[in-house]
Predict the 3D structure of the following.
Amino acid sequence: EAARKLEVESEECLVIEDAALGVTAAKRAGMKVIIVMAEDKTENDFADSDGAVYKFEEITPEFIKAL
């Protein structure tokens, strides 16, 4: 729905998420997903994500290009 409202293809979207259900929804839509990790989570909790960070500041243009 978000991609449609923005008038872009879902493959052009990048979702920043902190919940497993959000990762699942974004991946089902064909979007790339970066997770922001909580201290009680591991990357295994979000195996479908395309990248993981612990702070928003870690999401740099270089990080995104590497996806």
Q: What stands out?
A: The first helix runs from residue 2 to 6. The chain has a mean pLDDT of 89.
